[in-house]
Design brief:
Blueprint (H helix, E strand, L loop, with lengths): L12 H14 L23 E2 L2 E3 L2 E2 L2 E4 L2 E5 L3 H18 L7 H4 L6 E5 L3 E4 L5 H8 L18 H12 L6 E4 L3 H9 L11 H4 L31 E7 L8 E2 L10 E4 L15 E4 L8 E2 L3 E4 L6
Parallel strand pairs: 6-10, 9-13
Antiparallel strand pairs: 1-4, 2-3, 4-7, 5-6, 7-14, 8-14, 9-11, 11-12
């Protein structure tokens, strides 16, 4: 798996006066009726906190509501350099992959503020082989089992899977891959700094506890937002092309408009813990397949088409 690690958070009179002014301006004038709500405008009902839509015969996908919000994306340069040094030390003992490059780790920088302006649903688990087969009719995975996450799927395969799901209904929502920002926001679940995300042994499968294979979804402890296996088990495809970060604050980023590789996140059962951090970035061509690489679904409101 090529990653961005190697070729892979006295009250004053003036105050009282301002409050009085507010109260006066908020009150209707004598003889003036208060404004009445417009009966023709129906407020949108609140979104459910979790949904389980059916995606194939006998197969439902559990999804968790991720509220809109703002977070700090990426890593500091010192953290990125430390991750590189830690991984390089491990690599020198194994030398079972291409030599890691510092530039790849620095792709986690600079840290920047990201606002996600709309809520969305994200799969509680990675897409399983049973779910994949119910939609696509085949199981491409290297290690097989209904509750194992599907792997050996390319970015294009995952996009095709989502397209098939979107032909089943037209409810104003669509299935797709998460953006890189959505993925990291959901992985962090309101926590700033990788060291505060929780014990990797309790929350994910990595080379230190996996015994060399992926595991059924949902066996480890979820993060604070109820998402399982966000770190470890399988790398997860994101929709974005891989590219450099900007230091500027941004809203609803979707990555570069073009590129040669797509982003994957989260690390896998084959990787050391240092590669299963929230900020670590992997990348591969859209046709690449690997038994350490899968995905999870997002369901979001359809964006209006430009005229």
């Amino acid at each position: 798996m090529k990653t961005a690690m190697n070729h892979f958070t006295k009250r004053s009179r003036a105050g009282l006066l301002l409050a009085s002014i507010f109260l006066l301006t908020a009150m209707p004038l004598v003889g003036q009726e208060p404004a009445k709500p417009n009966p023709s405008v129906t407020p949108a009902p609140p979104l459910e906190k979790a949904i389980s839509p059916e995606i194939g015969p006998g197969q439902k996908v559990e999804m968790v509501l991720i509220e809109a919000g703002t977070f700090t994306m990426g890593a500091t340069e010192s953290d990125a350099r430390k991750s590189f040094a830690d991984y390089l030390a491990l690599w020198k003992d194994r030398r079972d992959s291409p030599e890691p490059q510092l530039e790849s780790f620095l792709s986690q920088t600079p840290q920047h503020r990201v606002t996600l302006s709309k809520p969305f649903f994200m799969g509680r688990y990675e897409v399983t082989q049973a779910q994949w087969e119910s939609v696509m009719g085949v199981n491409p995975s290297f290690d097989t089992g209904d509750s194992l996450p599907v792997e050996e799927v390319s970015w294009k395969n995952c996009v095709d899977f989502c397209r098939r799901l979107n032909t089943q209904s037209d409810d104003g929502w669509e299935y797709r891959l998460p953006t890189e920002a959505e993925w990291e926001y959901a992985c962090r679940a309101g926590v700033t700094g990788d060291d505060a995300l929780g014990d990797i042994d309790e929350m994910g499968w990595y080379v230190g506890n996996s015994e060399g294979s992926c595991h059924p979804v949902g066996l480890k402890r979820p993060n604070a937002w109820g998402l399982y296996d966000m770190r470890g088990n399988l790398w997860e495809w994101c929709s974005d092309w891989f590219g450099e970060y900007s230091s500027q604050a941004t809203t609803d980023p979707t990555g570069p408009s073009s590129g040669s590789c797509h982003v994957a996140r989260g690390g896998s059962y084959q990787e050391p813990a240092v590669l299963c951090r929230a900020a670590i970035r992997g990348f591969q061509p859209y046709g690449y397949r690997h038994h350490g690489l899968g995905f999870r679904l997002v369901k979001a409101r359809k964006e209006p088409k430009e005229r």
